[in-house]
Specification:
The structure holds two protein chains of two kinds. The longest helix of chain A has 33 residues. Chain A has 13 helices and no strands. Helix content of chain A is 80%, strand content 0%. Chain B is an alpha/beta fold. Chain B is built from eight helices and nine strands. In chain B, helix 3 crosses helix 4. The longest helix of chain B is centred in the C-terminal third of the chain and has 17 residues. Classes of the chains: A mainly alpha, B alpha/beta. Chains A and B meet through helix 7, helix 8 and helix 12 of A and strand 5 and helix 2 of B.
């Protein structure tokens, strides 16, 4: 990879690429955004359609506990993936299982898990301060490009490829199940399987994004792109394209801002994303105004 | 649901009991739907009609037996009573109809074959040209006809319709009648329909089961005129007067 970064850096020095590409960590960050945009953009529009925004927030909190558990069992500070994957997958399975078998509304149950995992995570983090400075896990909470390694990028690409392939395979059933589980079942899909399947895909997508976006902000990345896309898209194709485009441009914009103004990458990306959301909201209201006045005249 | 060898019945329901929170929604319901007929389930609100449909579709747990005697494709077409569309959801009519008609994810575009099938289906329910319209802006009647179009392909051996005339105007009800009767005549499709529309029931029903958590009475469309049934279905009578 060193030769690759040197080649990209050479292109940047000759003015063929923006100057920021002289720095390997920024090149790595750009590639992370390049991979994250289709994963989270693609997952995002199904998250919003399946009303799983709160579920995503609970998963982000569970990741904090996962990090703490990983560090407690001796995982390296910059890659506590065992703890994160293990605890998040366990939380996902438990949330979906209880949601399917309990009579309480889903948001109430997820709220219970949200509180439980956050409480547990905070207790464990305090326990961890005997071994580490708690600021050392800050990158997992808020996201940081400086701590992203080539191994993280490789993991992101591998997981992204698997998630994309699996999503493409089940996309139509997932969307039909979001619209009407009975119709999906008649069409041969199994709503219980789809619920577990999508929750697990969402979990792995979130966990691999944490080092870049941060546990506290990852929910935004799986909600805001689709929310912005809904303001301008007119069909499922546009919905997907806009979701990915919003994730990508907010990612690149946030990356640029975070390096120039030394702010956490996750925060900068989410701010850029929110700005795009409000732009699309304005575009939507401007598009509707002429239609309304035309209707009033006609 | 299992497959048996009964030649004349497509569906046998025997001792069907459904309970939720210790309340009995269906109590030992027993009836038979003959192949190639239009069988209507009618009953007052809370009689368990939609619960019965859910049980037949295998969507809720139940006690008793529901046996399907498939002789053909075994395909089920289903028009649900409730289909709530999020008002900001950018899914078009064509996207929706393509979901079960192509393997490629609809977000990556629709195949030419799928587009042709969708155009044919929409034409069949009198909604030609509505392909690019978002589901969220359709009227209740249009949405119900889109669901009917969805249920008609592939040609179902059993067509399950839960309150299909809700929100439909007279012309659309006429189209629905024609589609049902054509499917029955040409494809030997069996129709099991939950309905409140007495006029429509008289026009199309071969058999009627009056349900009030259990089977009250069963027979031809004429049983709707009996005093005991009219007493059981006062809301149905009011709806009929409102339409008239």
């Amino acid at each position: 990879m060193t030769a690759f970064y040197a080649w990209i850096g050479g292109l940047a020095q000759r003015g063929l690429l923006p100057g920021d590409f002289q720095y390997p960590f920024l090149v790595r960050g750009f590639f992370c955004v390049l991979v994250l945009a289709p994963i989270l953009g693609g997952v995002s529009h199904l998250v919003v359609t399946r009303r799983m925004a709160f579920f995503s927030a609970a998963l982000g909190q569970a990741a904090i506990t996962g990090v703490a558990l990983g560090l407690l069992i001796g995982e390296p500070l910059n890659a506590p993936y065992g703890g994160m994957f293990g605890f998040c997958l366990l939380s996902t399975m438990a949330m979906v299982y209880i949601k399917r078998h309990a009579t309480l509304p889903p948001d109430t149950l997820i709220g219970v898990f949200h509180a439980l995992t956050l409480g547990l995570g905070l207790c464990l983090l305090v326990a961890l301060t005997r071994q580490f400075n708690v600021h050392q896990v800050e990158s997992v909470l808020f996201g940081s490009l400086l701590t992203v390694t080539d191994s993280d990028l490789a993991l992101l690409i591998a997981v992204g490829t698997v998630v994309a392939v699996l999503l493409i395979r089940e996309y139509n059933h997932l969307l039909l199940d979001s619209l009407s589980p009975p119709l999906a079942k008649v069409a041969g899909a199994e709503p219980a399987y789809l619920e577990y399947f999508f929750a697990l895909l969402l979990t792995v997508s979130i966990v691999v994004s944490l080092k870049i976006i941060g546990a506290l902000l990852v929910e935004a990345l799986v909600v805001v792109p689709a929310a912005a896309a809904r303001n301008v898209a007119r069909g499922t194709r546009g919905y997907l394209i806009w979701s990915i485009a919003v994730a990508f441009f907010a990612g690149v914009g946030g990356l640029g801002v975070s390096t120039r103004f030394v702010v956490p990458t996750g925060g900068a990306v989410v701010l850029a994303m929110s700005a795009i959301f409000f732009l699309t909201l304005a575009a939507r209201s401007m598009r509707r105004r002429p239609l309304a006045s035309r209707a009033a005249r006609g | 649901m299992t497959t048996g060898d009964e030649p004349t019945a497509l569906l046998d329901v025997d001792g069907l009991t459904v309970q939720r929170h210790r309340e009995v929604l269906l109590d030992a319901v027993k009836f038979r739907v003959r192949r190639g007929t239009v069988h209507v389930i009618v009953g007052p609100n809370g009689a368990g009609k939609s619960t019965l449909v859910s049980a037949v579709l295998g969507q809720i747990p139940f006690d008793g037996r529901i046996v399907m005697h498939w002789a053909g494709s075994g395909a089920i077409g289903y028009v649900p009573q409730n289909f709530v569309v999020d008002p900001t959801l950018p899914v078009t009519v064509a996207d929706f109809l393509a979901l079960t008609r192509q393997r490629r994810p609809v977000c990556l575009g629709l195949a030419a074959d799928t587009r042709r099938t969708i155009a044919r289906l929409l034409d069949r329910v009198g909604l030609s040209g509505l392909e690019t319209r978002p589901l969220a802006v359709l009227s209740g009647g249009e949405l119900r006809r889109v669901l009917l179009a969805h249920a008609l392909d592939p040609t179902p051996e059993l067509l399950l319709l839960d309150e299909p005339t809700a929100g439909l105007d007279e012309a659309a009800v006429g189209i629905l009648d024609e589609i049902m009767l054509t499917a029955k005549r040409t494809s030997h499709t069996t129709v099991l329909m939950v309905s409140h529309d007495l006029e429509q029931i008289r026009r199309v029903a071969d058999r009627v089961t009056v349900l009030d958590r259990r089977v009250v009475v069963e027979g031809s469309g004429d049983i709707l005129a009996t005093a005991s049934v009219r007493e059981l279905l006062p809301d149905v009578g009011q709806r009929r007067l409102a339409r008239a």
